Amino acid sequence: MPVSFVVVPQWQGSPSSRAMRLAEGAEAIREDLPAAATRVVAVPLEAGDEQGTGVARFSSLQLVRERLADVLGELDGAVVTVGGDCAVSFAAIAHAARGGDVALVWFDAHPDLNSPATSPSGAFAGMVLRALVDEGVVPAERVLLAGARAWDPGEEAFAAEAGIRSFTVDELAEPAGLADAVVATGATSVYLHVDLDVLDPAEFAGLLDPEPFGLPVAGLVAAVSALTARLPLAGATIAAYAPASEQDRVDDAPAILRIVGALAR
User: Fold this and answer.
1) DSSP labels for 218-246?
2) Domain region containing 18
3) Could you tell me the pTM of the whole model?
């Protein structure tokens, strides 16, 4: 069954003062997707408020989560959700995980394992993986971090306590190891979350929070291909594209098309 795409130009989950670039980045990716297979989720203009949750802009995030869940419920087969910030993955993974024993591979420079109590910013994009584990959407033993290299102390403590395995950029040079680890979880399918800041900023320009010494584009594509060769794709997210200029869009387009192609194969 062909892959569907859902574009969610959400920015409210990000802590950055330049977060609106994430909405622009989602729209830039949408322009290269097949129109007949692509849906767009409307994102409110307002920032939203915390509503006592400890999560910044919670009201807008919750509204988008509900809208995305509604759209996903109308689609069959694997869906590639295009953000916006990483928070779009919550509803997407919750939808995909209803189908059985899903493993989650989180490609991201940041592990996104903070809670409202440990987050230095209150931004949900930095809490979304923790929320997925805490709420039982995906158990910790079926979560694998890939390429994380910018950790907060609370994230390190939680990962150690929960037993979440992490693969460094160097370890991902041999993608079979990651694929073997996913298969060993006993999962019957795999969801791939790809925050584009997992990439090396020397190769990819459109990032809000570039972290040096990331994955090469070829390494990410190889890892995705190795995973989907071993297990069916339950779904995927591409998040955090934030081009600062038209030249960034031009320069980054070949990489984005390679990543989309690997996920939609």
Assistant:
1) HHHHHHHHHHHHHS-EEEEEEE----SSH
2) 4-264
3) 0.97
